[in-house]
Every structure is written in C-alpha cells, then in structure tokens.
Amino acid sequence: MRHQRSPKASIAEERKAPSFPIRELTYWLDGGKDVTELKERIMLELERDPLWRVSDHPNLTLAETRERAMKKIRRLADQATSRPLEETMVRMGIISVVDPGFWTRFGVHFGLFFGALQGQATPAQLAYWMERGAFTMQGVTGCFGMTELGHGSNVAGLETMATYDQNTDEFVVHSPTLTATKWWIGGAAHTATHCAVYAQLIVGGKRYGTKTFVVQLRDTKTFELMPGVNIGDLGKKMGRDQIDNGWIRFTHVRIPRSHMLMKHTKVLRSGEVIEPPLAQLAYGALIQGRVSMVSDSANVAKRALTIATRYAGVRRQFSDGTANALETKLLDYPIHQHRLLPLMAQTFAMVFAAREMTVNYQQLMAQLSDLGEAKGAAADDAIKNLKETHATSAGLKAFCTWMCLNIIDQCRQSLGGHGYSAYTGLSQAYSDFAVHCTWEGDNTILTLQCGRYLVATALEARKGQPLPANLAYLQGAVSKSGAVDTKPCVGTSATAVSALDTLKAAWSSVAANAIVSAVRDFEAGLAKGLSKDNAYEFSSASRLHAARMHTYTYLLHRFAAQVEQSPAALRPVLTLLAQLFGAHSAVQHSGEFLQSGFYTGAQVETLKAFVNDACAQVRKDAVPLTDAFGYTDYVVNSPLGRYDGDVYEKYFELVTSLNPQKPIPYFDSLIRPLLERTNESELGPELEFDQE
C-alpha cells in the first residue's frame, strides 16, 4: 500500500510560498481593487440565485436550455438598463464565462441589434426606437440579419434587396433567391420582433451597396409573423444551444423609408441618395464585436487553465519506484509543465492585449463621434486610426480565438479520461467557444485582412508615409531593395538570448521579414499583369503568414509594455511569463528566426533550454497564478478545478446526484429480449418431396 496524501493537502502545498502577492496580481489583472470587489459581488449574486444554477447544464434538453435562458433574459433586462454601464459590462464579462450561450442570446439584442441602432441611426431615428423600447426590450426585441445561406464574410455580396418605391415612400425588402435567406440569425426562431437587416440598397434601378434596415418580423401584441416574413428554427448546434438561431425569408416586405438607418448614407423622399464623404466610417461600430472576443478569449482561457492547473496540482500518477513513496503530481512532470505553462503565458498575453485593444477602440469611437462632418487632416487621421484598429482587431480576434480554442482542448486533454466528461467543464467549453473562430468574421478571412493592411502600410512607408507605432519595427524593412535590416542576437548565454528586449527584437525581425516577403509576392503578382485585388489573392498565403507573425509580435510588445507598468512586486513573475511566451513561441517557429538571421542554430538550442527552465520556475507559482485570476468555484464550475482541491469527492457527488439510479426504461423492450433469445432458428415449411 503506497503512502497517500489527500487532494486537499496536495493543493495546500501549492500555495505555501508564492513568489508574488496573489491579491495584488488580481487587482492588476482586473484593473483595480474596486473592479475586483465588484466582480466578487456579482459572482456571489449569481451563485446564490437559483435561476443561475449551472451545474446541471449538461443534463438539460434543447427546449429546457432555451427556456432557462429566456427566464434569465427576463431577469437581466431590467437590471442591465437600470444599473451603471460599468457594472453591466463587468457582469456580462462574468456571464460570458459562466453561461456563454445566454451571453450570446442576450448580446444579440443589446450588442448587435441595439449596437446597429447606436452606430448607424441618426439621432432622431435612435430616439424613435428608444421610445418604442429598443433599449429596454419593452415592446421591441431585436436580432441582427447579416449572414445569408449563401454569403457570410462577403458582406458586399449579400443578395437580400431593399428597393425604394418612391410612390409610397417605402422600401421593399425581398429575398430573391434561396441563398438570400438570412441564416444563423440569433433570436430569430423564437424571440425577435424586429431585425436589423443588411440588404442591397436599390434606388432608381441603381445599387448603392449594403445598408442596414429595421424590419419588423412579428406583431408585438400577437407575436404572429408579419405579412411576407417567413421564419424557421435551425435547431440543434455544436454549442450555445441557449440561442434560438433561425432563418428568415422576406417576400416583398414593405417598410417606411425612415426604417433605413441613415447616419451615413441618406435616401431623400425624392429618391436622391446622399452618400457620406467618408464611407469607411460606417464600419467603425462593427469592430466592437471583435474587440470583445479578444477579452472573451482571455477570460475563457483563464477558466480552462484554472481547471487543468489545479487538477494537475492534486492528481498523482506513478512514482519513482521507491517503497511507500508518494505518487508524483502531474504538475511535477516536466512534460506536463510544457503542456500547460506556455498556455498560461499565452493567456496573460491575451489579457494584456485585450486591455490595450479595448482602450484603443474606445479612443477611436470617441474620435469618430467628435469628427462630425469634419474634413481634411482630422478626417484623414480618423481614417488612418480606423484602418489600424480594424486591422489590429481583425488579427487579434482571429489569433486569440484560435489560441483560446487550443488552450481549452489542451487543458481538456490534460485531464485524461475525466476531460471527456460533460461534468468536468471543458468539453462543453470547447463546443461553446468554437463558434468564435467563425462569427464576427471567419478567422482566415480576418487574418488576410490584417495581412492586406500590413502590405499596404509597408508600401506606403516606402513612399515616406509614417508608420503606426505598432509597426515601427518595419522602419528598416521598407527599402525599395526589399532588404530587411536584421541585427542578429550577439549573445550566446540563456540570459542573453531570452532577455525580454532580445525577444522583442527577435520577433520584430521575424515579423518584418514576413511582411516584406508578402510585399514581394504582391509585387510579383502585379508584375504578372494581375489586378491589384488579384495580386493580393496571389499573395494570400504570405499575407496570412505575415499577419500571424505580426500578431505574435504585437502580443509580446504589449505584454512587455504591461510588465513595465506593473507594480514592482509583480514584475519578476510577469517578466518570466512574458519571456516564456516569447521564447516558447519562438521555439515553435524556430525556422523563421533562423531564416531571418536573428538567431543561430546554437542560440535556438539555448532558447529551448531556457524554455525548460522557465517552465520549471513558473511551475512553482502555477496554482497561485490561477488563484490570481479570481474565479470562484461557481464560475469555474468544475469539480476538478475546485479551490480546496477536493476533486474526487465533489466529482463523485455531482455525477451521482445528476444521474440517480433508476429502472432502465428500455430493459423489457430491448435488453431482456436480447438476453433471453434462443438459438433456435426458423426452418421454414417441410417440403413434400423431402419425405419421399
């Protein structure tokens, strides 16, 4: 009989001597003590509210899941509109981790539908819809009708038409083909009374591009479908079943002209179309969803790592063979450290990138709001910032959602067989999060958009245009010769090759190399006689690669900036995590660093050794780092990620309480006949001639 140590004792060992003040790191991650205390109050409120029970989610049917989500909407609608905005945003950030499907269903109205009104309606239009309850969900519940059966990312190619009828001063909204059917529309199947419909504006036989129209779907009293509106339910999905996704077809549905949102493009009663001088500004509001997904990626990754790391701190497996020796913790195996701790570093990188991206977005929207009808330098500066924010948010949304999905699955696999259980928290997390890689822009398409911006910016820099701050590393890489001014790493020690400044320079070199390579491919396409757009397609593989390398570089630079701003007591552990992020990512892409000439083969080997050592160092703080994420057991919602380490007792209790012993419903109809069948076979009738 081997000596045993209880899981509670095992987890307590992990917290004996953290190298940093845990509470201070929580405050730093959250943005201050006040925010942390607000989060803790909200988490406790949710935990004590029976409506917000989450432990039984795996056992709910589709209908039960949707009904419970609707009950929560009823509860939260008043709360969200009566409490301060900051509190609501913090609450929704927590809910996005606790119940992501509900977060989506609630967000369809407040984030997408009402967001469309805020971003694209005139002041008079916004006031009109506010008076009718669009903000409070009193009389109006909205959905967002962009995606079609035949078109997703290509918004300009949407088929739904909105044709102006000057005789009646109305738009006629119509789905001309099957593929024009609005598809994946959250809230459409059961909930929405109105829809912000993206459709081709047609006036006097001329197309003016995709605009936004508010179309009533259902009678607000009877809830019957409006004439010409057909809606269906898309049913069961991979995840997020709380949201009632549906399809919508319009057959010559008439709406008042004033139901076209006209903050930017305007259609007068006479049929005159007035288009804005800066049409790009209309897309500023669409960036918000991408920015929120960077934050969501960080938040969900924190939960996954809390579960996997705490479990690794109590789970014991195998020993060194010494008599009566304790089995070894998973977290003490170097391979398990390599499995989880670089993911920890990635998560911190996402947290800090999300913080900065959110600030940048808020500054951009304030700039666009103040711009008004201004032209000249102010407008040019706004357009420049919009393009940069659009490209950065596109790259980060893609990169961070891919990264988070991988973190969830790697954490799930690290739980062994228990990771396959719906009750341990990560299988459903994976299913729920996977859609982030597709909605608000397919990740590959967004990465290509980022890559296109990088190529265009590099070309402009050649002509003397100033580079944005996050692309300053291109300064020496935009000569007409196409040469990259790489200054190789000169040190050979682990300290030299893994220093944070060295890693920043290394990644800058690699990103510059990748961007210049994409520029070369683009120019090669032009040299072949391709159009500008086709030359971009010709260089799509290198553009995608350039965007990936740039985003790694951006994350590391933002991480390093946050380290510099952090309290002194936190700087050592954050510096180590930043180094681990930069070094581990570099080892994973070592060929890029060899090709750029920044590192030699020997230096890459030294960097690998540093990663081993960094994992061993971070391992000492692994559980305290998850504690600093500040999630209560309610939010973690996994017996394997409990703070007290009592994983096996609570896991057993949860499984047995949700699956009590009952008579087997199909025993008499299926199991008993199977067990009691005989080997006698039907021989058929006896034949007369066989008797002769």
Topology, please?
Elements lengths: L6 H8 L7 H9 L2 H16 L13 H21 L2 H14 L1 H21 L2 H9 L10 E4 L15 E5 L4 E5 L7 E4 L8 E10 L2 E11 L12 E5 L12 E5 L2 E4 L9 E2 L5 E2 L12 H26 L21 H38 L5 H38 L12 H7 L9 H20 L31 H5 L1 H28 L4 H7 L1 H26 L5 H18 L1 H7 L4 H19 L2 H7 L4 H4 L10 H12 L8 H10 L16
Parallel strand pairs: 1-5, 2-5
Antiparallel strand pairs: 2-3, 3-9, 4-8, 5-6, 7-8, 10-11
Helix pairs in contact: 2-3, 2-20, 3-5, 4-6, 5-6, 5-8, 8-9, 8-10, 8-20, 9-10, 9-16, 9-17, 9-19, 10-11, 10-12, 12-14, 12-16, 14-15, 14-16, 14-17, 14-18, 16-17, 17-18, 17-19
DSSP, total strands: 11
Distance between the termini: 76 Å
Q: Over the alpha carbons, how many angstroms does the gyration radius reach?
A: 29 Å
Helix content: 40-55%
Q: What is the mean predicted local confidence, pLDDT?
A: 92
Structural category is alpha+beta
| Number of helices, counting only DSSP H or I runs of 4 residues or more | 23
Query: Which outline best applies?
Result: globular
Largest sheet: 6 strands, mixed
Poorly predicted runs:
none
Short description:
The protein is α+β, with helices and mostly antiparallel strands and 692 residues long. Helix content is 53%, strand content 8%. The radius of gyration is 29 Å and the shape is globular.
